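Lab notebook page, bench 4
Experiment: in silico fold of construct C2
Operator: M.H.
Input chain length: 339 residues
Purpose: comparison with the prior construct
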Amino acid sequence: MKQRVARGVASICSLAACVSISVAAQQPIASPETAAIRVQSSLVLIDVISQGKDGLPVRDFKKEDFRVFDDHQEVSISTFAAGAHDSRPIILWLVTLCNELGHSEFEASGAFMGKEALFRPALGHLENQDTVGVAHWCDNGETQLDLQPTEDRDSAIGVLAETLKPIPFHTGGDSDAVGEETFRKMIRLIIRDAHRRNPQPLPVIAFLHGDYTGQPHRELDELVDDFLETSGIVFGIKDDRSPNLRLLGEQSKILQYMAKHTGGLYFSAPPSGYAAALEAILTQLHYRYELGFIPLALDGKRHELRVGLTKKAKENHQGIRLRFRPEYIPVREEPAWAH
């Protein structure tokens, strides 16, 4: 099974004509007492995804191979985990925009309607401790976590199909502003869900959306801050027929923007490549490295993060690429919106 995943990743990373990359068991709910203990920790975790010349993750790095820099100052690596069995479990969220009248199927999530079963084989590659959830948002102000994280992969596909059914709603008027606010609300619901679990999982959002989207810069950056204060990675898959969007005065392609700022990727694929795209996402996550360090200051401000390799590790792995979130925000306590 793992060999099939590896071949899928190699093909998706090398055959740009087929799939291009735009770099951009329910877990127990924590009691107030355990949550309070967890919040006191100032440890910052960095999820590092490696990619060799062949496009596959490099799996033999050790703690002493890495260097971590906080605002250009090297810091000691306090904790180290490698691979899915050592690092935090994943909650994979499959997220869509309502299939609204007035949207082109390739602009939003409509292109995936009726093709949900194509993702089922990839879900079979989730690890036993990983779970999958489904969420959506609408331009009419509706949003919810449609399926709480579950080990039932078939249930996730069934609920995903329900979220992609067309609804009788026409865009226009103030629907853009309402949709933007609803999107931000949904993201915070997902992060809040992770905060309430003990131990805390790594929330991974996989948007199934053409990303023909925009948001005001200030509101979007505040949303990214919420991720940087906690932890999470954004990925996405869009149909390769999706149009591009450019906006004046707002940030366009907001889903790809969030992926870039959290260390994820956005894939563009034809229907025949949907499963391979999701398999590539899961493989990168399963072979990631998790580095922990104590921040220099708990000041609630953005800090630049950089992860590098030692000279010896570079010599042994020439052409290696590392991907990680480029910033973080150290905070003294859990953000108010996460309660």
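Observations: The chain has nine helices and 19 strands. The first strand starts at residue 20 and ends at 22.
Next step: discuss at group meeting.
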